[in-house]
Specification:
single chain, alpha+beta, Histidine-containing Protein, Chain: A, 3-stranded mixed sheet, 2 helices, 3 strands
């Protein structure tokens, strides 16, 4: 089955991202650009990013996906911040 890249598919993907137990992510953006689906946002680890991209490609195998999800630092700072 070929998925049509449109707002309905974007809604399906957002639902998958928020409701899937291994993902449960609301901060990911989904944009359809011509024949490409672009995932954006930030998560706390490369493993989490990879799982999100894996779930999307597994559930939408006929869609070309660009995973543009960044990694944010989730650990405590290692340096003291100087405030002047």
């Amino acid at each position: 089955m070929t998925h049509q890249l449109d707002e309905y598919m974007e809604a399906e993907i957002q639902r998958l991202l928020t409701e899937h137990g291994a993902v449960a992510e609301q901060g990911i953006t989904v944009q359809c650009r011509e024949n490409l689906l672009v995932l954006g946002g930030e998560v706390e680890s490369a493993e989490r990013r990879d799982e999100i991209c894996r779930q999307i490609t597994a559930n939408f195998p006929d869609v070309q996906v660009a995973c543009d999800i960044g990694i944010v630092r989730a650990a405590a700072p290692t340096e003291v911040e100087e405030i002047s």
